[in-house]
Amino acid sequence: MQLRFFGATGGTTGSCHMLSFAGRTVLFDCGLFQGRREESYERNAHFEFDPRQVDAVLQSHAHIDHSGKLPMLVKHGFYGPIHATPATGDLCRVLLYDCAHILEQDAAYLNRRRALSGRGGRAPRRNDPEERDGAAFQEELLPRDEVQPLYASADVHATLPLFRDHAYGAWFDVLPGLRARFHDAGHILGSAWVEAEVSEDGRLVRLVFTGDYGRKHQPILRDPQPLVPCDVLISESTYGNRSHPSQAEGEDLLAQAVQRLVQRGRGRLLIPAFAVGRTQNLLYELAKLVHDGRVPPVDVVVDSPLATAATRVVVDHPELFDAEAQAELLRYQGEERFRARLRFTESVEDSKALNRDPRPCIVIAASGMCETGRIVHHLAWHVGSHDTEILIVGFQASHTLGRRLLEGRSPVRILGRMHDVRARITPMLGFSAHADREDLLEALTPLARVEPHVFLVHGEDSERHPFEVELRQRGFSYVDLPSDSRVWRI
Hints:
Blueprint: E1 2-5, E2 17-21, E3 24-28, H1 37-44, E4 56-58, H2 64-67, H3 70-75, E5 82-84, H4 86-117, E6 121-122, E7 141-142, H5 153-159, E8 163-165, E9 172-175, E10 178-184, E11 192-200, E12 203-209, E13 232-236, H6 247-264, E14 268-272, H7 278-291, E15 300-302, H8 305-315, H9 323-333, E16 342-344, H10 348-356, E17 361-365, H11 375-382, E18 388-392, H12 401-406, E19 412-414, E20 417-419, E21 424-427, H13 437-444, E22 453-457, H14 461-473, E23 478-480, E24 488-489
Parallel strand pairs: 3-4, 4-5, 5-8, 12-13, 13-22, 14-17, 14-18, 15-16, 15-17, 18-21, 22-23
Antiparallel strand pairs: 1-2, 1-24, 2-3, 6-7, 9-10, 10-11, 11-12, 19-20
């Protein structure tokens, strides 16, 4: 019985972990690596294993860094079942088609840039950022060979029938010798941590994979369910060395930012946000602030077709809301102060028109790390204005535009041009959907008494190493930090 880790080792993207036993192979997640364009393409362009040898996938949730390579897996010969919760399947339908569209656009864009530059190499920098919806490249070095998208919409179409829905708490057979069940992880709608029992040569191993483990008292979602004792624990460590502000503090910071916009009477409050999870939480909190009278009504625009589609999926699954959200949903549906000022854009023309509208407004747009999507165009228009405030509401991976803004860098490259940053940058990590150090320790510490073999993944080393030290001090004897795809025998 062995484990291999093919992503999210020393970083927070590209989650893909392989369990092999009795001649069978299963993946826990199959996500895209995200970061520098050239490095991302190179790392995503192939698998370090033969997809035809994978028998099944256990999918923790729908975020692209966990699910984004599923169509590529199918494209290269995988045809087994993809086990997930119903909401994860619904969100993957939306996210994967959107991802394929962006990949196709990006490949076409790079090939046009190659044609302009001659044979590839460095693109000309004169007056050709070629602004377009859905892509923003922070480097000007172009590939020498024609770029093919990692996969296309047809591959997504072939992937979706492989999904198998499972309710929380219900055991199901994955493969002969392996059964599993999902538990609510409280991260995004439908997210799960996985409990698995693996049998090989008369030996039973209990394995737990946290996926992305959530926080207590998040808007809309139920609290994550407690982990169970196990022999092997694969745990995320995104915030293994950091603590989040409280949810109440996050609400206060959001209210203050809205009030500053109203007092200026002009400009933008830009909020880069993941289309799934973060956008819906922000809308919930803004509605609550307006209805409680803490801020006056103000125009709010969700400028993301993906977020619009994801919001519909969220609304279609009220059974997954916590009790407060179910009650608030009924209350908000009968009030108009917030809803009358909220709109969702549909076309690229609608998005461009926002930048020509002088009226103050809040714009929520993907992507959350400011690397792709419509938020990039809003930043290009407004980052140089003192009348702009940018809320950073989630984790920003290394080498992303969001991380550079958070670190206070200026100028920054956006769509091929350098921009001085005059906008106010406001960190607001109280809205993170990831467990922080204290949350993770609370979830993991009770397991120390059974001394599982712990593998820390999905965390930069600055987070993983201190967390490893703390876990050892709390009684975990076997803690490892995978850094590559070597074989671990369990």
